Amino acid sequence: MSRADVVVTGLGATTPLGGDVASTWDAMLAGRSGVGPLTQEWAGQLPVRIAAQLAVEPSERIDRVKLRRLDRSEAIALIAAGEAWADAGLADSGLDPERLAVSIGSGIGGATTLLAQDDILEASGPRRVSPHTVPMLMPNGPAAWVGLELQARAGVHSVASACATGAEAIALGLDMIRAGRADVVVAGGTEAVIHPLPIAGFASMRAMSTRNDDPERASRPWDKGRDGFVLGEGSGVIVLERADHAVARGARIYARLAGAGLTSDGYDIVQPHPEGLGAIRAIAKAIADAGVDKSDIVHVNAHATSTPVGDVAEIAALHAALGDHPVLSATKSMTGHLLGAAGALESIASILAIRDSVVPPTINLDDPDDKLDMDVAAHKARPMDVPAVINNSFGFGGHNVALVFTRG
Amino acid sequence: MTRDEITSGLAEILEEVAGVNPDDVAEEKSFTDDLDVDSLSMVEVVVAAEEKFGVKIPDNEVQNLKTVGDAVTYIESNA
């Protein structure tokens, strides 16, 4: 039995660089940073006072009354999914809702709702806690809202694998279509936890950059001066579709999602395996699953979060799995780290690199790490043919996901 | 407080919580059938009304408040 090919027919995003895919991609190619100072009063007490906040507030897209019922992570998932759905041209296509599924995850979920309602509980008592609290904080909330809005009836799923969530949600969509459980899967990730508690938690792990006086230069993957990741918020959603279904309706095809590789380290709850074994196996599995040769992979959108250890461990893994020929990029240098949305946003960057024959830049790579012995598109976007790309995502818990996109 | 004042106070709450047009709020209107207020929003309306009018509206009383007029009568006699 031949396995179904899966293609990408729609893209949607709202990010620190722009309120949609086009503005985000334009800003990326221009090498703009979405990182800025946190000016909220609560930020004053924190060791980290910078973040990559949304370029366009959800209130500009969703009416006030509806927004009262949505956690920020749910609101932005709805915005990104709405764009992707319209982009795919599926609205009036007669798609059977029983063949439509949703796979959208979040790394942390509705934490800001939980914390805000806890403040109300403490200050005013249980009767004042909003009746919308539970559907706002539940981690399946974003997927459920998107499924409701699109009337998806083939299943609504929300994987959680920390910073690998967005990529794993897309991999699940691939599996669903291959297994015949859906013809179309709206897949991606969402995250919105710019709040003192998550920031304090990550900062206590010494995982975040404290370059508070120079926000735009704080996220600097592979640079010697890197000192941790910069927290970002946003959502990225793509429409996955069975290839013959897309062709039959004359859909525009951005790229093929040719394969996915998923592994778990079984090593440590937060540290990656020191030799990157889990990452190497994920990349190797993705290539085998895609049926391509490692020499075909000319570009990698790396996980590269700007942490001292993780960035160079990934380089070692890429070397071992692919060799030294791919041109790398770390788009987190511009967007910050969108945690559970990162893999989805970076999938969009990978897909657009194929479409536009250009590798997005890695900004702030002024003084490359001695262990960086691969070619990086530093500072400026690099025009080049991109027939096949890998997008890496790794998450706390030892989750490793590699996705292979190829020209459709 | 007159019945009209209570009605317009409820209209403000309904607009804030559920996006109901204040012009649509009148005593004979049903919260669910006419004003499209769902059960979770109704909980919010009740809590906001308790705060605004200084009344206690027990949960077993809420089911009797079918229309805006029912709520006005309850608030009028319990405030």
From TrEMBL, chain A:
Domain of life from the UniProt record: Bacteria
Family listed: Belongs to the thiolase-like superfamily. Beta-ketoacyl-ACP synthases family.
Transmembrane segments: none
Its job: Involved in the type II fatty acid elongation cycle. Catalyzes the elongation of a wide range of acyl-ACP by the addition of two carbons from malonyl-ACP to an acyl acceptor. Can efficiently catalyze the conversion of palmitoleoyl-ACP (cis-hexadec-9-enoyl-ACP) to cis-vaccenoyl-ACP (cis-octadec-11-enoyl-ACP), an essential step in the thermal regulation of fatty acid composition.
Matches recorded under NCBIfam families: fabF, PRK07314.1
Domain Ketosynthase family 3 (KS3): 3-407
Entry-linked InterPro entries: 3-oxoacyl-ACP_synth-2, Beta-ketoacyl_synthase, Ketoacyl_synth_C, Ketoacyl_synth_N, PKS_Beta-ketoAc_synthase_dom, Thiolase-like
Organism per entry: Asanoa iriomotensis
Pfam family, one: ketoacyl-synt
Enzyme Commission number, as recorded: 2.3.1.179
Name of protein: 3-oxoacyl-[acyl-carrier-protein] synthase 2
SUPFAM superfamilies tied to this protein: Thiolase-like
UniProtKB/TrEMBL annotation, chain B:
Taxonomic superkingdom: Bacteria
Pfam families: PP-binding
Record-given protein name: Acyl carrier protein
Function per UniProt: Carrier of the growing fatty acid chain in fatty acid biosynthesis.
Gene Ontology CC: one annotated term: membrane
HAMAP family: Acyl_carrier (MF_01217)
Keyword Phosphoprotein: yes
SUPFAM superfamilies: ACP-like
Gene giving rise to this polypeptide: acpP
